[in-house]
Amino acid sequence: xxxxxxxxxxxxxxxxxxxxxxxxxxxxxxxxxxxxxxxxxxxxxxxxxxxxxxxxxxxxxxxxxxxxxxxxxxxxxxxxxxxxxxxxxxxxxxxxxxxxxxxxxxxxxxxxxxxxxxxxxxxxxxxxxxxxxxxxxxxxx
Length: 141
Description:
Layout: E1 3-6, E2 13-17, H1 28-41, H2 54-61, H3 65-77, E3 81-84, E4 88-91, H4 96-120, H5 125-136
Antiparallel strand pairs: 1-2, 3-4
Helix pairs in contact: 1-3, 1-4, 2-3
């Protein structure tokens, strides 16, 4: 399932939820919040951008509205969004260093996921290093 968040005019797709996994050990609310954090850290979601209503996003993702509420609350606690009673949820201004820290944390998560997947299919660390070096154009010795 692929679900996108849109700007007010519904013409520009900003964020895609394509990897929500109900069987993951990571709760759905955390997966939702994480994807929105990534969008904010990457600059896909700008300050003051409204997020979809709880009901709308819950319906799109086919989850309980309480799941979306928890995701939005976590984001508010972390300073990424502001929830305004009766108005909605909006992206907050996030300092560049905070956005950089979030991107670094996401890079660590990606590396851990890659290492785990490589281990499951029997790819050695050396094979992985060679493949990465080739992909980014770095010579290995």
